[in-house]
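Let us work through a complete example step by step.
Step 1: write down the sequence.
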Amino acid sequence: MVTIFTVFIDDTLEHVETSRRMGIQGILFTTAEALEEELARLLEKDS
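Step 2: predict the structure and record it as tokens.
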């Protein structure tokens, strides 16, 4: 089974917090490396 989910990525904390309040996973962008780690963590969690 394939799971599909939405992730909102932004560099503004207020935007990320709003996405989370709306039920959408939000990631605050700080660096490419941190984003890669966070996405890997989400994908691992989903498996």
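Step 3: interpret the result. The beta strands are 7-10, 25-28.
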